[in-house]
Write a structure and sequence with these properties.
Radius of gyration: 21 Å
Number of strands: 7
Structural class: alpha/beta
Largest sheet: 7 strands, mixed
Mean pLDDT: 86
Shape: globular
Distance between the termini: 19 Å
Helix content: 25-40%
Number of domains: 1
Number of helices: 9
Low-confidence stretches: 231-255, 257-280
CATH class: Alpha Beta
Strand content: 15-25%
Order of helices and strands: EHEEHHHHEHEEHEHH
CATH topology: Thymidylate Synthase, Chain A
CATH superfamily: Thymidylate synthase/dCMP hydroxymethylase domain
């Protein structure tokens, strides 16, 4: 299973080798199709904005479909995707808790209490009608999260998130914070006590927009200087184990290359970069 480090390495190398995809608006992106990894870190590239995350979760919990109800200043992206009246589809609290969306949270809670070994504990966020609903009254909000499935295995609650699309700079941070919030709420509401298991992240298109390439440049620079050391997120990793004999990732191999380059640089006072070593 890949981890966030593997995803960092993929985007860093894709930028280096200019592996770009042009989206519908003509903007370059770096895209990873069918990204599957353990969300063992709270961010991939940019540190989370904890103040905004707190406000967004508060709005989600309110279940309001009006962007004007976001506490504090409403982010420009929400205004841009809202309808002419300021309505959106993607209030994840509404999608998880509302009776109008068949109360997905309660369905999962009841299922896990009744049958802890269940494979049916599935919160469904999107809906078939989204093909019609996403652009009503000038809206542009095609729900990004398809569903989230929960498993109780070995007395741990395991979370598997499935998304059609996810921005790796800011979207991942905010979405992971929400999914961690819901996971923790389930742990409190379940009849039995379970540990917080891993959160697995599955995305049809995980991407970085051209306007954010500068952040990837910072990431690559930190790789080369050896200064990149992201802290782990303990709450997302409780109850999981690592196998020391795990096959080396691209990230690990790249780190070995960096160390070798650093040793050579000490001797020659120059940094070498072999473009032929890592191809995507």
């Amino acid at each position: 299973m890949d981890t966030v480090k593997d995803i960092q390495d993929y985007f860093s190398q894709a930028l280096k080798h200019e592996k770009f995809v042009t989206d519908k608006s003509g903007v370059k992106t770096i895209e990873m199709i069918n990204a599957c990894f353990e969300a063992d870190k709270p961010y991939i590239i940019r540190e989370p904005n904890e103040d905004y995350i707190k406000r967004e979760i508060e709005w989600y919990e309110s279940q309001s479909l009006w962007v004007q109800d976001i506490p504090g200043e409403c982010p420009a992206i929400w205004k841009a995707v809202a309808s002419n009246l300021g309505v959106i589809n993607s209030n994840y609290g509404w999608l998880a808790y509302s009776d109008d969306n068949w109360n997905q949270y309660n369905n999962v809670l009841k299922e896990l209490n009744k049958n802890p070994e269940s494979r049916r504990a599935n919160m469904i966020y999107t809906r078939p009608a989204i093909w019609h609903d996403y652009n009503i009254d000038g809206m542009s909000d095609f729900i990004c999260t398809n569903n989230v499935q929960y498993f109780i295995r070995d007395d741990y609650l395991v979370t598997s998130v499935y998304m059609r699309s996810n921005d790796a700079i800011f979207g991942y941070n905010n979405d992971l914070a929400w999914q961690t919030h819901v996971r923790d709420k389930l742990l409190e509401d379940l009849d039995c006590i379970y540990g917080a298991g891993p959160i697995y992240w599955n995305v049809g298109s995980l991407h970085v927009y051209e306007r954010h390439f500068k952040f990837l440049e910072e990431l690559r620079k930190n790789y080369i200087t050896g200064e990149y050391n992201m802290p782990s997120h303990d709450m997302m990793h409780v109850g999981t184990e690592r196998n020391d004999k795990k096959a080396q990732s691209l990230y690990d191999l790249k780190q070995q290359e960096i160390e070798a380059i650093a040793i050579e640089a000490d001797e020659t006072n120059e940094i070498k970069d072999d473009d032929n070593i890592y191809k995507l």
